[in-house]
Amino acid sequence: METWTIQIPRNQYTSLQVGDEVYSKSLIVSNSGFQQGSSGARLGDVASIDNTTSLDDGTETTTLVINVFNTGGPSPSINDFVFFVKNKINITSLLGYFAKMQFKNDDKDRAELFAVSTEISESSK
């Protein structure tokens, strides 16, 4: 089976696990200035995760090995959006007693958040 190795910043994708699915989408900038995804493809599954790697400049990274499904197919380009989807094993709710969220708009234009929702169930008394 063909494998690909990619490096990502260590502080990104902290919930990534072996077995999660890897997808790729090419981004296209429309006339209105928004980025839109073209047709995407499932690349494969995460085979291994190494959190001990770093770049030459000292930036801490995570190295991922991906089992590729479509061997011989096109690989993602430098500007493609690569994202991860949890496998079906992780279908339960989050556990814990505390949650903290922060939403930021780094654009100069005004933006409006339509909705935020959560699922809460009492786990103990």
Characterise this structure.
- There is one protein chain.
- By secondary structure, the chain is an all-beta fold.
- It has a domain at 3-85.
- Helix content is 0%, strand content 40%.
- It has strands at residues 3-9, 21-29, 35-54, 60-68, 81-85.
- The protein is globular.
- The mean pLDDT is 77.
Strand content: 35-45%
Number of helices: 0
Helix-strand category: mainly beta
Please compute the radius of gyration using only Cα atoms.
18 Å
Short structural description:
By secondary structure, the protein is mainly beta.
Which key terms come to mind for this protein?
125 residues; mainly beta; 5 strands
Ordered list of secondary-structure elements with their pairings:
Blueprint (H helix, E strand, L loop, with lengths): L2 E7 L11 E9 L5 E20 L5 E9 L12 E5 L40
Antiparallel strand pairs: 1-4, 2-3, 2-5, 3-4
